[in-house]
């Protein structure tokens, strides 16, 4: 009942981490009538003059859009996003071709990370019961006393006593570090051998230097580069490559030789000087996967987003999954009348298998990409996918379509994919059997004529 919900509803919610997921979650809780305090370690990105310059973009798709729709923000975000209707594959000889995402202009959206974070923070801040506290870094979570210790901007420490703590403090989460100290808390982290570096393709005379509405990919086995379009008509490129190959590219000549060898068509697009300067200015960052369970402690703390499930980016689902965490958490809070003692365990139980499924799918894509994804194999696999989908539209849905263009729970996507693989391989054998039988009968008929 509403009264019961009001009785058990968390009055004060502390959200640790005001990144993409934390900021969205603040909007969800505020709309529920809770008092929300967001504690963010960094300064207010909306005020900081030092614009890092690099506009980082992300692919927003169905799951993330639905989470924004739950709080009435989807139209605003979709309006600023740039639709990508397919992949534009760049092969080693400079040729390129499109592999569409689906029929009738199905698209994913390239959105600016910083602008999205600013929009979510500003939306949260406008709601009456939300306070944002920047340069507040969580240092302690005392589960028994149910309080948090944070370092304030003036380096003093403050202690707060919320009814609920939500850890959305990213892959290196401090809230999670305190969950780790609890009995029966499982944790695993895996760094992959690849790192990534961002580069920029600037506009040419104010226009996009390549086709704007595509996710550009240069698949090259051991490494790859992708490029997503930005509002300012530039592209942000992400070069994924093993650290031990990055280590061999140590001089401007070696950068240019490497790009001539592997990404020749990108050199004039980026520009030789900019390529060399960006390559040595921008960091080579690490990529890791984090799995842990459960996601909660008692009726006091829960973790969401990368804090709960950091994944390698080879499906473009990290933010989409973190946004979907908010959708699931708030559905369960509603179903449990805001009773945290039952809603939080229900959240861990439902969300962990799905989050770990997408972590596995993304890692599998990373392995696949290293061995099988060249420009020709990428095309062939997608052509087979679309052929099977057209033959059996309700039986065969390509894996990337279930992940990116549906809200089928990630764990169910894997089960369905296994089933589809069986059906397809059986259908394949039947087809093979039938054609061999057919050929034999034809041959026999000819012989008896
Ligand atoms: C190269 C790359 C490409 C990607 N591409 C995509 C994509 O195309 N689509 C997609 O959906 N996802 C993508 N992702 C994943 C996406 O970036 C993350 O999943 C998403 O940013 C997670 O959001 P979050 O809010 O959980 O964590 P974060 O964005 O990391 O935010 C955590 C926040 O918590 C703060 N914080 C940390 N510690 C503390 C503390 N102790 N106290 C207070 N505050 C703290 C941090 O300052 C930060 O603001 C990509 C990731 C990478 C690395
Ligand atoms: C900003 O940094 C990044 C980094 C990686 C990604 C994104 C943004 C967005 N990503 C998407 N991946 C898929 C997908 O399903 N697959 C199988 C793909 C996987 C890879 Cl690795 C790829 F290069 C293309 C596709 C593809 O099909 O286009 C989408 Cl659909 S969107 C990966």
Structure description:
With 449 residues, the chain is α/β, with parallel strands linked by helices. It has 15 helices and 19 strands. The chain has helices spanning 2-8, 20-31, 62-70, 74-80, 113-126, 174-179, 243-246, 252-262, 266-270, 272-281, 318-335, 340-371, 375-391, 399-404, 410-448, and strands at residues 12-16, 35-40, 57-60, 82-84, 86-90, 96-100, 108-112, 130-134, 137-142, 147-151, 157-160, 164-167, 186-201, 214-220, 223-229, 235-242, 285-293, 296-297, 301-303. It has a 7-stranded mixed sheet with strand order 6-5-14-15-16-13-17, with helices on both faces. The protein has a 6-stranded mixed sheet with strand order 8-2-1-12-19-18. A 3-stranded antiparallel sheet has the order 3-7-4. Helix 3 crosses helix 11, helix 11 (318-335) runs antiparallel to helix 12 and helix 12 (340-371) packs across helix 15 (410-448). The termini are far apart. The structure holds flavin-adenine dinucleotide (FAD) and ligand EGU. Flavin-adenine dinucleotide (FAD) is lined by residues 16-22, 39-42, 58-59, 137-138, 168-170, 174, 196, 238, 305-307, 313, 316-320, 322.
Structural descriptors:
449 residues; binds flavin-adenine dinucleotide; globular; binds ligand EGU; alpha/beta; 44% helix; 19 strands; six-stranded mixed beta sheet; seven-stranded mixed beta sheet
Question: What's the short story on this structure?
Answer:
This protein is an alpha/beta fold and 449 residues long.
Q: Tell me the helix content.
A: 40-55%
Low-confidence stretches: none
Associated small molecules: flavin-adenine dinucleotide, the ligand COc1ccc2c(c1)CN(c1nc(C(=O)N(C)c3cc(Cl)c(F)cc3C(=O)O)c(Cl)s1)C2
Structural class: alpha/beta
Number of strands: 19
Q: Mind telling me the C-alpha Rg?
A: 24 Å
**Large-scale geometry:** globular
Strand content: 15-25%
C-alpha end-to-end distance = 83 Å
How is the biggest beta sheet arranged? 7 strands, mixed
The total of helices stands at 15
Q: What's the average pLDDT?
A: 93
């Amino acid at each position: 009942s509403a009264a019961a919900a009001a009785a058990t509803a968390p009055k004060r919610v502390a959200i640790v981490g005001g990144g993409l997921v934390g900021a969205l979650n603040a909007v969800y809780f505020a709309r529920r009538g809770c008092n929300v305090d967001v504690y963010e370690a960094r300064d207010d990105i909306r005020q900081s003059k030092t614009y890092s310059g690099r506009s980082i973009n992300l692919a927003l798709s169905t799951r993330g859009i639905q989470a924004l729709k739950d709080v009435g923000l989807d139209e605003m975000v979709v309006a600023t996003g740039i639709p990508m209707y397919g992949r534009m594959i760049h092969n080693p000889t400079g040729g390129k071709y499109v592999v569409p995402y689906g029929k009738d202009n199905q698209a994913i959206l390239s959105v600016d990370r910083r602008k999205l974070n600013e929009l979510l923070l500003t939306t949260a801040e406008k709601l009456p019961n939300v306070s944002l506290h920047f340069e507040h870094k969580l240092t302690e979570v005392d589960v028994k006393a149910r309080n948090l210790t944070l370092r304030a901007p003036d380096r003093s420490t403050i202690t707060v006593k919320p009814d609920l703590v939500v850890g959305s403090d990213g892959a290196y989460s401090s809230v999670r570090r305190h969950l780790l100290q609890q009995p029966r808390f499982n944790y695993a982290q895996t760094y992959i051998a690849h790192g990534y570096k961002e580069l920029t393709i600037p506009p040419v005379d104010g226009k996009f230097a390549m086709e704007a509405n595509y996710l550009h990919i240069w698949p090259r086995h051991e490494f790859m580069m992708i490029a997503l379009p930005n509002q300012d008509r530039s592209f942000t490129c992400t070069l994924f490559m093993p650290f031990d190959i990055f280590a061999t590219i140590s001089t401007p000549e070696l950068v240019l030789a490497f790009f001539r060898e592997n990404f020749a068509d990108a050199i004039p697009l980026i520009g030789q000087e900019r390529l060399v300067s960006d390559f040595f200015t921008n960091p080579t960052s690490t990529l890791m996967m984090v799995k842990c369970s459960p996601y909660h402690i008692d009726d006091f703390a829960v973790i969401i987003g990368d804090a709960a499930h950091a994944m390698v980016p080879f499906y473009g689902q990290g933010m989409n999954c973190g946004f979907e965490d908010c959708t699931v958490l708030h559905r369960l809070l509603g179903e449990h009348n805001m009773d945290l003692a039952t809603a939080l365990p229900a959240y861990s139980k439902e969300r962990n298998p799905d989050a770990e499924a997408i972590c596995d799918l993304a890692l599998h894509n990373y392995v696949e990409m290293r061995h099988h994804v060249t420009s020709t194999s990428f095309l062939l696999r997608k052509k087979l996918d679309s052929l099977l989908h057209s033959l059996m539209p309700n039986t065969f849905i390509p894996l990337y379509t279930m992940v990116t263009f549906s809200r089928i729970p990630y764990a169910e996507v894997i089960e369905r994919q296994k089933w589809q693989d069986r059906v397809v391989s059986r259908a394949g054998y039947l087809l093979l059997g039938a054609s061999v039988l057919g050929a034999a009968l034809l041959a026999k008929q000819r012989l008896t004529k």
